[in-house]
Amino acid sequence: MIPRHQTVFFIILLVASTVMGVALWQLRARAHERLLAGQDVAPTEAPTVAPPEQATLYFASDADNSLTAEALSLPLPPSPNARARAVLGKLMDLYAAPNATHPVQGGAASIAQVYLLPVPSANATATSPAALSKESATGPQLAVVSLSGAFANGHPSGLETETLTILSICATLHANLPRVAQVRFLVDGQPRPTLSGHADLTRTYLTADAVPTPGVHP
Predict the structure, then answer these.
(1) Whether the Cβ atoms of residue 110 and residue 136 lie closer than 8 Å to each other
(2) pTM for this predicted structure
(3) pLDDT (tens digit, 9 = 90+) per residue, 138-189?
(4) What pairing do the DSSP bridges indicate for beta strands 66-75 and 141-147?
(5) Considering only CA atoms, which of 102, 108, 85 is closest in space to residue 177?
(6) What's the longest Cα–Cα distance across the chain?
(7) Rounded to an integer, what distance in angstroms lies between the CA atom of residue 67 and that of residue 102?
(8) Strands 111-118 and 141-147
(9) What would the pLDDT profile of 4-26 be if each residue is shown by its tens digit?
(10) From CA 137, how far away is CA 154, in angstroms rounded?
């Protein structure tokens, strides 16, 4: 026979467990209601979409080794670095499209990154910090374009086709970011002697030389 004091203790434990269970269930229900209320009240933010703007792309043509400017409406982000990558990505997408005038595979992923840096003036060491800061904000820029290794390795080999790709990139950058006066190329963030065996990637390209004069091939 169970002693009376043990029976009383067992009943007390049972009642306490029941009360705690009911309290926890109520707390859980209230927390769930607050969560639903918060979801109803908090507005859902739509993803930020850049507004379309007019961009100028310089398309290469293998038929006559020419560059042709064409205006397109593209969603362009406000950051200059992001804008540069966006216009070049679109250019690469069109080169990867069927019936492209300059077929090169890879698409937008071919442009790994674009960095915009100030071009130092010849007397930079004798210039005050304030003047250097102003020059950095308004002066000419160097664009460092990092291409993907897959794009470079798969690019059609040949001096003319490789040069057309490089010049179309330089001209497109300058058309949409006029401060870009010089362009350097990397592959997977590292220096590389040539694009695909011919076009020199160790030199600095001047965008003024890349933009074609009407009626004159690059």
Answers:
(1) no
(2) 0.72
(3) 899 999 999 999 999 999 999 999 999 999 999 999 999 999 999 999 999 9
(4) unpaired
(5) 85
(6) 112
(7) 10
(8) antiparallel
(9) 666 766 677 666 677 666 666 67
(10) 37
Of 115, 100, 101, which is closest to residue 147 (Cα–Cα)? 115
The token pair that represents 214 in the structure block: 């009407």
Written as six digits, the tokens of 3 are 């002693």
pLDDT per residue over 27-82, tens digit each?
Answer: 666 766 665 555 444 455 544 567 889 999 999 999 999 999 999 999 999 999 99
And the tokens for 201?
């990637």
Residues with Cβ within 8 Å of 149's Cβ and at least 6 positions away in sequence, in order, are 187, 188
C-alpha span between 119 and 184 (Å, rounded): 12
At 80, list the tokens: 């200059």
User: Would you state the structure tokens that stand for residue 78, as one six-digit string?
Assistant: 């406000």
Q: How far apart are CA 67 and CA 131, in angstroms?
A: 37
Q: What is the full DSSP assignment across the chain?
A: ---HHHHHHHHHHHHHHHHHHHHHHHHHHHHHHHHHHHHHHSPPPPPP-PPEEEEEEEEEETTTTEEEEEEEEEE--SSHHHHHHHHHHHHHHHHTSTT-SS--S-GGGGEEEEEEEEPPPTTGGGS-HHHHHHHHHHS-EEEEEEE-HHHHHHSPP-HHHHHHHHHHHHHHHHHH-TTEEEEEEEETTB--SBSSSSSBSSSPEEHHHHSPPTT---
Contact of 133 with 176, CB cutoff 8 Å: no
Structure token pair of residue 134: 């102003």
